[in-house]
Amino acid sequence: MHCALYDANRCRSCQWLEKSYPQQIDDKQSLLQQLLADHPVAEWRAPVLSAQQAFRNKAKMVVSGSVERPVLGLLHADGEAVDLIDCPLYPASFRTVFAALIPFIARAGLTPYHVARRRGELKFVLLTESTRGELMLRFVLRSEQKLTQLQAALPWLQAELPQLKVITANIQPVPMAILEGKEEIFLTAQHALAEQLNDVPLSIRPQSFFQTNAPVAAQLYQTAREWVRALPVESMWDLFCGVGGFGLHCATPQMRLTGIEISAEAIACAQQSAQAMGLHQVNFAALDSTQFATGNDSAPQLVLVNPPRRGIGETLCQWLSEMAPPWILYSSCNARSMAEDIARLPDYAVQRVQLFDMFPHTAHYEVLTLLERKS
Ligand SMILES: C[S@@+](CC[C@H](N)C(=O)[O-])C[C@H]1O[C@@H](n2cnc3c(N)ncnc32)[C@H](O)[C@@H]1O
Ligand code: SF4
Q1: Is 269 a catalytic residue?
Q2: 233 class by beta-carbon count within 10 Å (0-12 exposed, 13-18 middle, 19+ buried)
Q3: How far is the CA of 182 from the centre of ligand 2 (A)?
Q4: In the CATH hierarchy, which top-level class contains the domain 58-192?
Q5: Which superkingdom does the taxonomy of this entry point to (predicted)?
Q6: Could you read off the pLDDT of 285-302 as tens digits, one per residue?
Q7: Which pTM does this prediction carry?
Q8: CATH H superfamily, domain 4-52+213-373
Q9: Pocket flag, ligand 2, residue 227 (CB < 6 Å)
Q10: Which ligand approaches the C-alpha of residue 202 most closely?
Q11: How far, in Å, from the CA of 85 to the mean position of ligand 2?
Q12: Is 89 a pocket residue for ligand 2 (Cβ < 6 Å)?
């Protein structure tokens, strides 16, 4: 893929851009094989590929420059602002949104925040698009000072961009490079963006994780569903469940499913989806996954885990070793921490592994691994 910003040395976020796409996949697969070298793998499935551009459903833009000429993109450590509106990872529809946002920022008088001077109000704009083309837009502000101005100017933006369904102001008062604060103020009646992957209705709310590459995420969830349904599983947990994508794909009306996730916003999304699907044997709760597990003295037949980059860690691995669920399905965005966790589960054999290329042009990828208790 060609990126003019990369060539001009303005943005180097895609470290592997100079490798051909087939080479990127070969390198990821061999790195994964090296990481699992100590654990015999019964079956390697072929990697699932991504589109090479326009695959990101999310943009996190730092706002800099002046109120009349805002720059949306990133800020180098030396203070240089880089306009990322033309980043080829975004769908073409984002350009229309950015083109309307620039005059809107001036109309609403949202002065970009200046990091060194600690002045100004607008820190970031966060944009998410569903596969049906509807949008969620969040303005990350230093304070509530410009909120009334923002609200007064909003009808113009909504008339320009009728696909904007959810708009919020997030208040982030800390003068550090933190993306978002705790306080979220909804500026639209609609609070969640409707999404559908395969036949499963999902929703996206502020402050809840959602996969950034929807077509590859859909294949990941579908694969998890096929692997689980091929097993005689009547009860499962989905730990670190986010908005419930894995569990809701795997569940059948007969299966007992418990989904655990730390974000209450994400759990509200998962509960809404379960209701829409007519699933009654399902329970989603906002809790710490390890505390939830260790508070139980037995495990379901299958435990699915999809932790953040740090992995599931020693305590949860020890609990799994003791409670001995017949199967563990591990979806990871960091194969290194996953390999460390697998080493802590010596009673499990690696049945099947498949790489999902969620993050082309970088060294990152998602991997789905089925572990089976040794008899
Ligand atoms: C990689 S995301 C996976 C989300 C979800 N499975 C999906 O497919 O979108 C990891 C999730 O773990 C959640 N999380 C982080 N720490 C947690 C904890 N201690 N207990 C439960 N969930 C946690 C995050 O909020 C995030 O939603
Ligand atoms: S993130 Fe976008 S602008 Fe930056 S190098 Fe990658 S493709 Fe280019």
Answers
A1: no
A2: buried
A3: 29
A4: mainly beta
A5: Bacteria
A6: 999 999 999 999 999 999
A7: 0.96
A8: Vaccinia Virus protein VP39 (3.40.50.150)
A9: no
A10: 1
A11: 10
A12: yes
